[in-house]
């Protein structure tokens, strides 16, 4: 592919981002949306409009999103008409007042109906908040402090403290290099990571310590391990430890409700987010009555957890998902994507590793310069008006026609990479620095 310096540092999004880094610490509010995670000097950075699977940048350029679809929030597509109309009606009626919104009761009833093992619900607006709420409740219910974790559970002190004793302890749980700066040193040892599938390690932890909770993702990089999850369930019941499934990411992507329903393993508590409001801020913590009742004795309260937009969006989103069952189509499409990625890589003599849940597919080309290769893929995709990285979060609107455009680009870029991979000047094809991996300072 031809080298093109035209895009470098010239788009309005890049100019605004350079300004943002001077007045917003970290540049923005979410690590996963930093331009440095994609193509640092070229990524459009900001959007003016989003609809369906298309995103418009500040210069009016229209891009098709074959990347992370709002960090996995918009499985019905951007700007789903019915959801937006329900939200607009809420805005016209009033979003927040001295009184409570009735929608939170209706939404709680729906969530308990979907997950009949649960009986009570608390709401928040972000995944990190929901995770922290669940840990507080588990500690209150057991009168214990320690927590065992497997997976990514947000930015709060209780979770990041796992990296105090060893700063790489959480590296295998999605994001490497998470800093503990600002986390009290006295929290060391209260949160202990364990490896997915390693029943012996978690069994030793649970037996040797009085743990308040085992918190884990049902699956992230692989399919759910039913036998492992069943053993975890037995262990936690035996030792009076609260089992919490973090389904903020996995929920509603393979069935109506949590991924745990597919393996028939019921936790004591679970969290849902991301897909729940199709882009509107809403998360929940559901749980059994005996565990959730501990919430009554602990101060867990926030003004904007009572706003009306989130519950309104969630009620309408659940209604649409129940009717349309988008996860069936999404998983069919995801299977095609993975099959074609493997096929095209093999055709071009590239060794590829594909991981993640099917609808949250990620891939990497097995080469020491992978980060540079990844950046190059994104750089060239932008020239084809596509947002592409190594992660592809499938939505209900990624039709065969749209995916054909993705495959055509992958054919071109994989062939190009194969032809130049061993060339010493490959890195010279980049129009700026390569992308970051995990957390690191911007300056």
Highlighted features:
single chain; 443 residues; alpha/beta; Aspartate Aminotransferase, domain 1; Aspartate Aminotransferase, domain 2; seven-stranded mixed beta sheet; four-stranded mixed beta sheet; 14 helices; 14 strands; 37% helix
Entry summary:
This protein has 443 residues and is an alpha/beta fold. The protein is built from 14 helices and 14 strands.
Number of strands: 14
Helix-strand makeup class:
alpha/beta
User: Low-confidence parts, pLDDT < 50 over ≥5 residues?
Assistant: 2-8
CATH class of the largest domain: Alpha Beta
Helix content: 25-40%
CATH topology of the largest domain: Aspartate Aminotransferase, domain 2
Instruction: Name the CATH homologous superfamily of the largest domain.
Output: Type I PLP-dependent aspartate aminotransferase-like (Major domain)
Reported CATH architecture of the largest domain: 3-Layer(aba) Sandwich
Largest sheet descriptor? 7 strands, mixed
Widest sheet: strand ordering: 4-10-9-8-7-5-6
Rg, rounded, reads: 22 Å
Q: What is the count of structural domains?
A: 2
| Secondary-structure element series | HEEEHHHEHEHEHEHEHEEHHHEEHEEH
């Amino acid at each position: 592919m031809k080298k093109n310096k035209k895009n470098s540092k010239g788009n309005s999004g890049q100019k605004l981002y350079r300004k943002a880094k001077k007045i917003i610490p970290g540049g923005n509010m979410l690590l996963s949306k930093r331009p440095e995670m994609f193509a640092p000097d070229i990524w459009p950075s900001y959007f003016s409009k989003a609809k369906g699977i298309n995103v418009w940048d500040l210069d009016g350029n229209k891009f098709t999103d074959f990347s992370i679809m709002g960090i996995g929030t918009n499985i019905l597509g951007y700007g789903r008409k019915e959801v937006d109309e329900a939200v607009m009606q809420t805005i016209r009626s009033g979003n927040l007042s001295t009184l409570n919104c009735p929608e939170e009761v209706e939404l709680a009833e729906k969530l308990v109906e979907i997950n009949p093992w649960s009986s009570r619900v608390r709401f928040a607006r972000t995944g990190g908040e929901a995770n922290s709420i669940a840990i507080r409740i588990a500690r209150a219910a057991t009168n214990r402090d320690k927590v065992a974790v497997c997976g990514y559970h947000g930015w709060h002190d209780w979770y990041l403290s796992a990296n105090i004793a060893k700063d790489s302890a959480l590296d295998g749980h999605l994001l490497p290099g998470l800093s503990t700066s600002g986390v009290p040193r006295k929290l060391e040892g209260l949160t202990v990571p364990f490896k997915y599938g390693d029943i012996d390690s978690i069994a030793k932890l649970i037996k040797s310590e009085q743990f308040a909770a085992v918190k884990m993702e049902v699956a992230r990089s692989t399919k759910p391990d039913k036998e492992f999850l069943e053993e975890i369930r037995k262990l936690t019941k035996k030792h009076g430890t609260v089992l919490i499934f973090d389904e903020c990411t996995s929920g509603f992507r393979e069935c109506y409700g949590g991924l745990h329903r597919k393996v028939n393993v019921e936790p004591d508590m679970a969290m849902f987010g991301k897909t729940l409001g199709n882009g509107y801020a809403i998360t929940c913590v559901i749980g059994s009555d005996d565990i959730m009742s501990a919430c009554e004795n602990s101060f867990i309260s926030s003004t904007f957890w009572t706003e009306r937009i989130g519950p309104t969006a969630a009620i309408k989103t659940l209604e649409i998902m129940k009717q349309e069952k988008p996860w069936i189509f999404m998983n069919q499409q995801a299977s095609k994507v993975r099959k074609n990625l493997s096929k095209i890589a093999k055709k071009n003599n590239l060794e590829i590793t594909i991981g993640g849940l099917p609808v949250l597919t990620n891939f990497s080309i097995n080469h020491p310069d992978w980060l540079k290769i990844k950046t190059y893929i994104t750089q060239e995709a932008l020239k084809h008006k596509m947002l592409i990285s190594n992660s592809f979060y499938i939505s209900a609107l990624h039709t065969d026609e749209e995916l054909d455009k993705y495959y055509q680009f992958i054919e071109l870029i994989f062939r190009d990479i194969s032809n130049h991979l061993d060339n010493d000047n490959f890195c010279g094809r980049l129009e700026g620095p390569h992308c970051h991996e995990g957390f690191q300072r911007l300056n």
